[in-house]
Amino acid sequence: MKQRSILKLLLSLLVIPCMLYMITIYQPDIFLFDDITYQVSVVNGLSNNSSLPLVIWCNNVDDAYSDIGGRALQEGDDFSWNVRVTLWKYISSTNAFSCTMKWDQKRKKFEAFWLRRDESRCGVLRKCVWLVKEDGFYFSNDESNWVREFKWL
């Protein structure tokens, strides 16, 4: 009986530090109760649209009263904001921001930021950038490598 208790104690002493190590690697700032800030940007990558700006309006999905506003973006302009995630927000909300885009006769609503989807893909710099082009919406975390995520339709 005493050997079983000693074995359980040894296993506990090994398992708990391993679990804590894995948590700190996965999301160290959350574990240490620091806030995490993500930078979200939407860039107008439409060419030759000087007479037709890209109109964007974004809001926090969790809070209907948390409207972050809108802009009419000319070619190359961007609309950027920071998303601050606390431990409480990490546990209790979706941490999502939705944007509605309008260009000419096209209209599209999409999730510009969703923590569960973007926490790892925004990279170590926590940079989430969208480039809006004629054929769709492209995502990048370094503004060099773009992947089309959505079409206008």
Summarize the structure in short.
The protein is an alpha+beta fold.
Give descriptors for this structure.
alpha+beta; 4-stranded antiparallel β-sheet; Immunoglobulin-like; 5-stranded mixed β-sheet; 2 domains; 153 residues
The radius of gyration computed from the alpha-carbon positions, rounded to a whole number of angstroms, is: 21 Å
- Reading the helices and strands in chain order gives HHEEEEHEEHEEE
Number of domains: 2
CATH superfamily of the largest domain: Immunoglobulins
- Estimate the helix proportion, in percent: 25-40%
Tell me the distance between the termini: 67 Å
Mean pLDDT: 83
Transmembrane segments: 7-26
Keywords: Membrane, Secreted, Self-incompatibility, Signal, Transmembrane, Transmembrane helix
InterPro entries: Self-incomp_S1 (IPR010264)
Family: Belongs to the plant self-incompatibility (S1) protein family.
Molecular structure report:
The radius of gyration is 21 Å and the shape is elongated. It has 153 residues and is α+β, with helices and mostly antiparallel strands. The chain has 4 helices and 9 strands; from the N terminus they run H-H-E-E-E-E-H-E-E-H-E-E-E. The protein has 2 domains: 1-31; 35-150, Immunoglobulins (Immunoglobulin-like). The chain has helices at residues 2-26, 28-31, 87-92, 115-118, and strands at 36-44, 54-60, 67-73, 78-85, 96-103, 106-114, 127-133, 136-140, 147-150. InterPro entries: Self-incomp_S1 (IPR010264). It is found in: Secreted.
